[in-house]
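thought: fold this chain, then report.
action: predict
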Amino acid sequence: MIKSTIGNYKNSKSSNPLFLLFFIGLKKEGTPVPSHAGLPTNGRKKNFSLYVLFHHCRASLMCILKLSIMKQRMNFYEKGFKAMKPLFSLGAYLSKSTVEQSLLDLISFRVSQINGCAYCLDMHSKDLRAHGETEQRLYMLDAWREAPLYTARERAALAWAEAVTKLEKKNVPDDVYEEALSQFSDEELVDLTMGIIGINSYNRINVAFRTPAGDYTPGQHAALQN
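observation:
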């Protein structure tokens, strides 16, 4: 077992800097280092136990990472393009709303945090940055109630978005509704609510069909809203 493991390491160590860094760390701490690590042992006895432990931990971690990276189930936007047209039209309508686009993007980002939608988090974080949003406000959005960085209007919109998304106890509380009405006109609250419904729809599509995330560029979907 150990011989096999060492043989595998010999064959792969040149392409695995993690192993070299690991053994350098052992050497700095004064732990006996296997000669197969490619580092001088200064005559110390070879001790492979830590190496073998590290090797198997690393192998297990790599297996877990491979399993956890989800593969796309279907290109929903290709197969369901016609079905998606009402959502695209909703986006076109909201782009002309009196509710600020930056606020709608902020709400989309927060709802996507709640729903765990990687694609939408990537998209809206990039759109927000492109329009001047600060890193600090993005980082602290998940704890917006404790952060002093958001306006009263933004706080009312965030509370409304969370309540409408979560529907805790099958309800949207009266105080959340009243606070939203104090910051938005009836028409604006309608638009804000439709924006929340829209991003929840996109979140559910992307999560259900595992849309790959990370490659979005700002403005990529602008043509779909025209």
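thought: worth noting. Residues 1-10, 17-29 have pLDDT under 50 and may be disordered.
final: tokens above.
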